[in-house]
Amino acid sequence: MEKPFLRLVAEDIQTRFGKEISDIAIVFNNKRPITYLKKHLVDVYGQAIWSPQFFTIQEFFSQSSTKTLASSLSQFFYLFELHNELLKKEGLEPESLEEFYPIAEIILSDFSQLDYDLVPIDQIYMTLFDNTEIDLAFQHFTPEQQEFIKLFWQSFSIKGHTAVQQRFLKLWKRLPVLYRLFKEKMAQENQINHPTIYRALAEGKAEKPDFNRKFQKVLFVGFNALNRAEAQLFKQWQEEGQALFYFDADAHYIDDNLQEAGLFIRRNIQGTGLLNALGDIPNIIGNRTSEVQLYQCLGKNSETKLLHDVLLADFPAGLPADKSAAILLADESLLVPLLQSLPDLEVNITTGYPLIQSPLYGLIDLWCETQLAISHQKKEKIPYQGLETFLSHPMTKMETFAKQKIQKEIADKQQFEVPINEIDISTSAIPYFFEPIQDQQGVIPGINRMIGSLLESMALQGRIKLIESDLLIETRKVLNQLQAGFEKLGNLSISFQIGLVKKAIAPINSAIEGDPLKGIQIMGLLESRCLNFDNIYVLGANEGILPKTSSAATFLPNNLRKAYGLPVLENQDALSAYLFYRHFQYSQGMHLFYNGIVDESSTGEESRFIKQMEFETQFQFIKKTQQQPLLFPVQPDELIVEKKDEIWDKLYQTYIINKKQLSASAFTTYLQSPLQFFLKYVAEIKEPPSISQEFEMNNLGSIIHKSMELLYLPLKGNPDFTPTETLKDKLGLVDQLVLQEIASEYKLEVSNIDDLNSLQRIMHKISSAYIRMYLEYDMANYDAIRIIELENEEDYKLDFEILLDGQPEKLRLYGIIDRVDEVVDKDGQLKTRIVDYKTGGDKILFTKPEKVFAKDTENKALLQTLFYAFVYEQVTGLKGLEPHLYVARRMREDGTLFRNNSGSMVFSDYFLEEMKGDFVGFLRKTLEELFNREIPFKHDPDAQVYPSDPYTLFYKYSVKESIEEE
């Protein structure tokens, strides 16, 4: 097996320098490889020695300056102040902090890039519309570079510019001036940034240009992509005999100029002339024939679930002490699902757990949005979704009973916006969450107060909890730095502070303290530079992720970047390729996972780097496709509930022994779906309270019923008939009555319609229109009316006999009577009616009785009205009740008396009495089936399912019964 790269470096150090290495500087791109090289030095030397000095490249270069490093926040404010001064000189309005922040990020990034690559500032920001000018100004450029510059400036017509172009040109002319002023400002404050340090060193303007001479030798280990400043300094120090370079590379991609993975090291060796201290670069990849396991997974999260099984198969007893393994996240958004899917193995997370993916960030973000509303915009209410998010958040630790009480109250009132002074979250870990901050100085103290409360309440158990507590501490550090900056700047608006807080805390990562030399290491591909592992597991090896297909925002267009040799997207591809390829030089157990599902975030294809390796090398790629129900579903078992044991006991005890009342809606529910009847009336699985921003027909019906009751109540019990003309007087009462009932329904205090929210106003308008239609119908079709019964849900109960196991038993039915009346129609005929109001899509029409008296009935409203009429007639002894349905949408065209489509069968007189008899037989037959132990509760897949049905998930897999042919 090949030796790890850092082992080779350690052996070379011993060979070159012996034991005298204390005055050697060893420089890496980041800190992570330092621990590994120390371990290899201990193994190579086998005895105690004085350690060399270790640095990151930025730490090493920073020794050339005595100035203080400027924070990113300080740099932003310097830039903001200077930019507004330039705008003022141009006679333009200054920009606000909020407007300038995103622009400042791009400008600072561009300035940094130009410094790192030593680009002449005045030259790149020249405004050149004439090709001749370009030829003169850029004589030292190659024809290709000159062509890139011409392509950029050709987009600006000499004759005129669009508004966007004019704005860009004004900023473009301002940028070189802003650059110089920015550098001067930092110098005045005795501050500096890393790009300035690099440029000063490369241009010979550093305070301590010979800082590196205090070391016997400087060893640069594992560098790949160098900016122009690094390349120039490295070349200079090599010529002075001060530097050695250790390149981690393979001839497979170095010797082939078409291989993007070798792009930068070829430049370093062939272009810059840097020498590899390890000598000739070996061809390891080209000579390997090892197996590579390639897993096509069915979704992003499925990658981590499959990895769980693979890790257990590879290390059933844990990772052996003499083996190393790493999980490399090409897609770093997989960290959280990975942590939730890891088996019980020792791991060390070095990639860092991003705050933005944690529950903590969601809570801070919610607090910020809430304060924007109640403190900045001075609102007294918040959207109910914000309160619901808080109640459901795991870190708020809201007590269940208090949470349910609030949810029920919001649902009862259907509050789309909740007054903050009515919110009681005193049982939570953050009881002051919805209190407005007092002033602009309260933003960061408010978040810090919340973080303190969360730290106190958090039980530090498990891997995730440990990370979250670490995140809280890291967040507090960043916030304290921000607070120090804010205090120097005077009055900053709440909205700007919140915007800056979000940007400042978004990059926070929390690394778990662990041993980087023990256990399975978890890191990003970039963090794996210089490191080798016996086993690697790459997650997210998809095209579009490896390599990424996007680049950072910039004001330096692509053509100019190419002209000046600045990084472009192709450079990012080359870096990704190198980071991926180098693991094939050493690792023995290689496992690559990618998402094979095509969706808006995934191409469904493995990375092209994998395809290249498969085509160009002798590695044996073993392809495996994850088999899961997600893609190849096995039909789950249908939910069928047998009527036996506890279930039969509950059904029998409830309805036969304890005489629980069976309603018309329970009866039609059974017809629609026996399984739904079980869930709703036997198992008593109820809908949780909820708030909907869609129109609620149940609430509409309730308001209309109560309003109609109040309008007709004065007529109830009157022995004499009332002329329907008198109903005209009630039309003027409708609006106020409906307003009163809406207030009652939603537990509101209102004085007029303006106090209602938008949906409640719509409900008011529809309810009022329906009620007027009912009143006008009665006036138009009848001369006189006498009200016998109104909205009675209590008095009409009937013990109904059925046969259960051949023995008579009684069920208690009960009817909800909306209205029973006597009317005199326009022909002078007297009718006794039972009236049911409906606000939905019900109708009075049917095709034939057999389809009404059947499972999945075609007219549920007719069955329910007959149910009410039957109970009422049996209880009172009154006969001849006509069932009428008031459906506002169709009553003008169709009337209110049930009939078939052709009108040949109308529910009155002899046909009515015949149908009542048929109904009673159907009712008895259905209820005997309900209490037949041999017939289970199961859903009929042909039954109509309403969109609002909350039980659809339970009968999702219902199947039709097979019929055996004789």
Key features of this structure:
single chain; 966 residues; alpha/beta; Rossmann fold; 6 domains; seven-stranded parallel sheet; five-stranded mixed sheet; 35 helices; elongated
What is this structure's SSE topology?
Layout: H1 5-17, E1 24-28, H2 32-45, E2 53-56, H3 57-62, E3 68-69, H4 72-89, H5 97-116, H6 121-124, H7 131-137, H8 143-153, H9 163-188, E4 191-192, H10 194-202, E5 217-221, H11 228-239, E6 243-246, H12 251-254, H13 263-271, E7 291-297, H14 300-314, E8 325-329, H15 335-341, E9 347-349, E10 353-354, H16 359-376, E11 381-383, H17 384-392, H18 400-413, E12 417-419, H19 443-457, H20 462-488, H21 494-505, E13 509-510, E14 520-524, E15 535-539, H22 558-563, H23 569-581, E16 589-595, H24 608-616, E17 620-625, H25 645-657, H26 664-672, H27 674-682, H28 697-712, E18 722-723, H29 728-731, H30 734-745, H31 758-781, E19 782-792, E20 797-804, E21 807-814, E22 817-825, E23 830-838, E24 845-846, H32 849-852, H33 860-876, E25 882-887, H34 891-894, E26 899-900, H35 909-930
Parallel strand pairs: 1-2, 1-5, 3-4, 5-6, 7-16, 7-17, 8-14, 8-15, 9-14, 15-16, 23-25, 24-26
Antiparallel strand pairs: 10-13, 11-12, 18-19, 19-22, 20-21, 22-23
Helix pairs in contact: 1-2, 4-5, 4-9, 5-10, 10-11, 16-21, 19-20, 20-21, 26-27, 26-33, 28-30, 28-31, 30-31
Quick structural gist:
The protein has 966 residues and is α/β, with parallel strands linked by helices. The chain is built from 35 helices and 26 strands.
Describe the structure.
By secondary structure, this protein is of the alpha/beta class. It has 6 domains: 5-63 and 208-271, Rossmann fold (3-Layer(aba) Sandwich), CATH 3.40.50; 68-200, no CATH class; 292-352 and 513-625, P-loop containing nucleotide triphosphate hydrolases (Rossmann fold); 356-510; 637-690 and 793-966, no CATH class; 692-787, no CATH class. Helix content is 45%, strand content 13%. It has a 7-stranded parallel β-sheet with strand order 9-14-8-15-16-7-17. A 5-stranded mixed β-sheet has the order 18-19-22-23-25, sandwiched between helices. Strand 20 and strand 21 form a beta hairpin. Helix 19 (443-457) packs antiparallel against helix 20. The radius of gyration is 39 Å and the shape is elongated. It starts with a helix and ends in a 36-residue tail after the last helix. The model is unreliable at 628-634 and 962-966 (pLDDT under 50). InterPro entries: P-loop_NTPase, PDDEXK-like_dom_sf, PDDEXK_AddAB-type. This is PD-(D/E)XK nuclease family protein. Residues 661-939 form the PD-(D/E)XK endonuclease-like domain.
